[in-house]
Amino acid sequence: MDEIRERLLQLRQAIRHHDHLYYQEASPEITDREYDALYSELKDLERQHPELTTADSPTQRISGTPLSGFVTCLHRIPMLSLDNTYNNADLLRFHESVSRTLRGAPVLYTIEPKIDGVSISVRYENGVFVQALTRGNGKEGDDVSANLKTIASLPLRLMLDNPPAVLEARGEVFMSRLGFARLNEQRQAAGEEPFANARNATAGTLKLLDARLVARRPLEVIFYAQGEIEGLEVNTQQELLQFFRKAGLKTQDWLRTVTDFPGITEALLELRQNKNLFSYDIDGAVIKVDSFVQRQLLGQTARAPSWAKAYKYEPERCETRLKDITVQVGRTGVLTPVAELEAVFLAGSTISRATLHNQDEITRKDIRIGDTVLIEKAGEVIPAVVSVRKEKRPAGSEPFDFVAHLGKRCPSCGGEIIRDPQFVAWRCPNLQCPAQNMRRIEYFAARNALDISSLGSVVAEALLEKGLVQEPLDLFSLTLDQLAALNLGTEDEPRVFGPKNAAKLLAALERTRTMPLASWLQAMGIPEVGSATAYQIGRTHRNLAEVANSAKLRGIVSLMAAQERGLPASAISQAPADSVFGELFSWKKAEAVVSAEDLVFLGLLKPGSRKDGASYYVTTAIGPKTAQAVLDFFAGETGQAWLKKLADLSIDPQGGETAVAAVETASALSGKTFVLTGTLTSMDRESAAAKIRALGGSVAAAVSKNTTYLVAGENTGARKTGKATELGVAVIDEKQFLEMLGEK
User: Fold this and answer.
1) Residues 12, 81: one domain?
2) What gap in Å lies between CA 442 and CA 335, rounded to an integer?
3) How high is the mean pLDDT in each 10-residue block of the chain (744 residues)?
4) Which CATH number does the domain housing residue 179 bear?
5) Element (H, E) at 695
């Protein structure tokens, strides 16, 4: 048996070595036939001795059966997005901000190509691949481990003698131009629709539940950032990339380092001139401060780091004809004109509609029905009309009058529309407008809000039409019978929702009762509040009652207003509520005074300094306008109605330390580390690992002093159980393991 173990070890090491040479170095040492012989021998030996199969074996790249669905897991460290810019003026402001915060200290920037793919975080523990998560909403993502394992260039074991205890390598999954072209050729040959672009194909592939199908797609992965790291000291971006390459993780070849703004612009120009020479699509560049110590000083907002900037190249543009202008009603009643276009292919997808924003925008650009217009994808995502080719305008065209076109009536409810005094927009003031109600319910159920996946637009529309709900919180009064009988079709062609779907929706609604404060704040549709703001408010408040009359939010408003009046930072941070600022601090005197230091401690402010040496404060994720909007919302009729209805429903979303404690309490496996060995009869090891992580636990490849349980399946060898006994680690069988999972 020892000889077999030794041969298996030799085969795995050899195959990993040749995989690295083939997929990353492009310099194979052996022929395909010789490689296949090694792989076949490994498979045969593992088939004869399944108890000797390891999770990081090259044969374990492809799962045998499809998943029933993806498990959503928390990122140990949030996956932040990058702030984007398209012009040098923004880049100059970024550089000046970095220099100002670092007080003129020398700074080195790295310039890397920005891959047009899908962000991913891959976790290794003791050098062994254990998990891959998508970005998701930044706080949590889908576990796509089975799909990532199919990427041949991704090592399942790092090529290191002494790997760190934990390494989360973050990067981009993508398809090369050649691989994408071949995939579309195969799809067309099979009579299937081709993908619009490589990024869409990549995103769609990662969502497949059958890893065997994923393995047929030409996915690749490149790494450029880190998440959680234990047992490794890395001080710069260049050191990180060098370590990745040493570990066998693929990085980009193109990298430039510069020390000043002219150097940044020169590198960007060079990259733009050569962007089509890459084997994959890039849509810009990423500028990062190289030093991790300086990154700490620069900090971050809830959404993006302050030490990096994404520079995106100008989007593609093309001409088409504007056939008509229609009007959409948003969840807040704002009416938005939409250009109905002759379909045109642009930046990888077919465009038939584009936003026109508002009447002022239409008037300024003199956009008319029948015009030939120039359109672009703003941020390469949202189509927009840039300008009109007036020389191609048809005779007899008339200026578009938004109000006259609508007859001053809402296209959804028929009620009279009004001009919003605060914004350049027209609005339907009817809070029971069907279009608004449906948008609010969709927003309430969205993934980055309360994630009620079984409540789509079709279901929401049917519920509204039947009069079963009028607003989001009415959903909690629905019964199983009402939902089961709901007709999603027509009277002539009925399509009943059914009891199974009804039960699923009710269960999803029940889960929302224990969802954190941040998710509820996002779901409520408060003006100015997006997911990043909701997260920060939820993090720094205990519950909705505290948010509704928040001293912290009032502190942001008051402190920033005082600073605008020219008061020194020392006065702002030390003055009591009603001595210096007067009416600025006129909220409940019973509340504790929130100082600038308090807000800095909470991460809601950060200190800075002007060129003259004077200190001041800047907000991070919640500005004074947003803070005031939240306070106004809860002081108004709509916010008060939410608070009353939630209290009636006994729903009290928790935030801050309370929410963290609740999550930990709800997870029976939180803080526990498992090692799986032998053969489990109820599930494969990957499924078992996913269940452990879903309940807050972690999975390691080898038994150590940090292991809580060794799960010993059938055909378990004595090596791991012996080590567990030696270290005092509890050894449990499959039955005990299933009991921990709460399964039979």
Assistant:
1) no
2) 17
3) 84 81 62 72 83 80 60 89 87 94 94 94 95 89 92 92 95 92 74 72 87 89 96 95 96 95 95 86 94 93 86 84 90 86 80 84 91 75 82 92 88 87 75 83 83 82 87 92 88 86 91 90 85 81 91 87 69 42 37 70 74 70 87 90 93 71 49 82 73 72 83 74 80 87 70
4) 3.30.470.30
5) none
In order, the DSSP letters of 458-506 are HHHHHHHHTTS-SSGGGGGG--HHHHHT-B-S-SSS--B--HHHHHHHH
| 340 shares a domain with 257 | no
> What is the count of structural domains for the chain?
6
- 87 and 178 together in one domain: yes
Whether residue 112 contacts residue 308, with contact meaning beta carbons closer than 8 Å, is answered with no
Q: Which of 114, 149, 250, 691 is catalytic?
A: 114
Coil, strand or helix: which one is 529? coil
Q: Where are the beta strands (DSSP E) in 245-305?
A: 256-258, 282-289
CATH of the domain at 329: 2.40.50.140
CA distances (Å), 742 to each of 518, 672, 698, in order?
A: 28, 16, 17
User: pTM for this one?
Assistant: 0.48
Residue 114 annotated in active site: yes
Query: Chain-centre distance of CA 394, in angstroms?
Result: 45
Q: Tokens for 579, please give them.
A: 């001595």
What distance, in Å, lies between the first and last C-alpha atoms of the chain?
Answer: 34
Boundary (domain end) residue, out of 412, 427, 442: 427
Q: Is residue 61 in some structural domain?
A: no
Residue tagged 């088409």 (tokens): 320
CATH classification of the domain holding 473: 1.10.150.20
Residues 377 and 255 in one domain: no
What domain range is 626 assigned to?
519-663
